[in-house]
Design brief:
This protein has a six-stranded mixed β-sheet, with helices on both faces. Helix 5 crosses helix 8. By secondary structure, the protein is an alpha/beta fold. It contains eight helices and six strands; from the N terminus they run ααβαββαβααβααβ.
């Protein structure tokens, strides 16, 4: 099998998530993405009446999902890529009735392989729920970066998976009864710098293997102005498109 393309830098990814964990200790840290993903997983489990006896939670730095599952009698293991957990190799953790991966698989180089490892770590009848930021996210910032770079655009933001590709991935990796959906989460910002600070604290900073040259002073100011011009009354609304993939091991 050919090796997957190297789009993301594992080292930069780990460093970005370690920085995220440090920033998340602040009282006013932005937590809207993980809170949305956790709430969604809990709602899905209630709707499906799936009560796992053993669960694996990856990437939930809030600990909220694990706490909820333990409160319902589940034995839960938590793993974090910042601590060296590698989602691109087989899990040596046994089998689970639920694996929930929140906000991490958008920056692995071998996403099909990562999904296969999840499926293989499920017990028969086990459920996987995977959520991450997807195609269509950050349109105002993407437009501002194009203005900043002018005729020579550089790689600034990550390529992302869309709904169609997500569905194809679940089918290719052998999940039964796959469900794919995407929902927008809209957040207002008073400036581009505030958005960039949030992206760092959310673990969404640039981790591309080839991140391109840094923005110069003039380019950064052009980006700020373009981002502000996309809003109204001093506030620009940015969109995070959250893709959720779920499927069973039969």
């Amino acid at each position: 099998m050919p090796s997957p393309p190297r789009i993301f830098s594992p080292h930069r990814r780990r460093m970005a998530r370690q920085r995220m964990l440090r920033l998340q200790t602040g009282a006013d840290a932005p937590r809207y993405l993980v809170e949305d993903m956790v709430d969604d997983v809990i709602e899905r489990l209630a709707f499906l009446r799936h009560a796992p006896a053993r669960a694996l939670v990856v990437g939930d730095h809030s600990g909220a999902l694990a706490a909820h599952l333990r409160g319902h009698g589940a034995r839960v293991e938590e793993r974090e890529p910042a601590d060296g957990f590698d989602e691109e190799v087989p899990y040596a953790l046994g089998s689970f009735d639920l694996i929930a991966s929140l906000g991490t698989l958008d920056t692995v180089n071998d996403l099909p392989g990562a999904l296969i490892h999840i499926r293989q770590s499920l017990a028969p009848g086990g459920l996987a729920i995977v959520s991450f930021v997807s195609s269509g996210s950050l349109p105002a910032l993407r437009a501002a970066m194009l203005v900043a770079d002018g005729d020579r655009p550089a790689p600034r933001l990550h390529p992302a998976v869309d709904v169609r590709a997500g569905g194809e991935l679940l089918q290719r990796t052998g999940f039964a009864d796959p469900v794919i959906d995407q929902r927008p989460l809209r957040v207002g910002f008073r400036g581009m710098d505030r958005l960039v600070a949030d992206l760092r604290a959310l673990g969404l900073a640039n981790v591309l293997a080839d991140p391109g040259p840094p923005l110069g002073k003039g380019a950064r100011e052009r980006a700020r102005q373009a981002f502000a011009a996309a809003g109204e009354e001093g506030r620009t609304v940015e969109t995070f498109e959250i893709l959720t993939l779920s499927g069973w091991r039969r």
